[in-house]
Amino acid sequence: MEAYKTKVKKIAGSDYHEVISDALKLYRNLKKKTKRKPYIRSTYFKNEKVFLDYFWGHLNQKAWKDRTRRLKFYPCALELIKNSHIQPVKKINPNKSNEYVYRFKGQTTDGSVFNVQIKENTRSKQKYFMSVYPVN
User: Residue 50 in contact with residue 132, Cβ under 8 Å?
Assistant: First the structure.
């Protein structure tokens, strides 16, 4: 599978509080642009909205160390969602038959590889940024 190469660097830092502050700044800037749910438009999905609020609930279910590891890739994930034309892996969600899960692969400027997951509700056609995580 081909990876999208980002121009943005991942967030530096090893402490959760350092990393979360930078990630929340990016999120707040996007949140200011709309009165309702924060979103970004995706080139791959023909400029449709991908909502960002689902990610934070999913992230809070993880352990502290895993949260830090995932949050470092947050700016890279936003760029990938916004600009990627590369075909993702598309699967039906095994837990819910009315959802698709798209898995995009990306690579940072320093060579770190990561995955971004977006889920789509087939009935409402809404897309949600679900997760970002590094690939070992």
Answer: no
> What pLDDT does 95 receive?
85
Question: What was the pLDDT predicted at 94?
Answer: 85
Could you tell me which of 54, 26, 27 has the C-alpha nearest to residue 131?
54
At 5, list the tokens: 């190469």
Domain coordinates in residue numbering, the chain:
4-134
C-alpha–C-alpha distance, residues 66 and 16, integer Å: 10
Q: Write down the pTM of the prediction.
A: 0.92
Residues 6+ apart with CB under 8 A from 26: 74, 75, 78
What's the half-sphere exposure (Cβ side, CA atoms, 13 Å) at 98?
6
Q: What is the mean pLDDT of each run of 10 residues along the chain (136 residues)?
A: 92 92 94 94 96 94 94 96 95 90 95 96 95 93
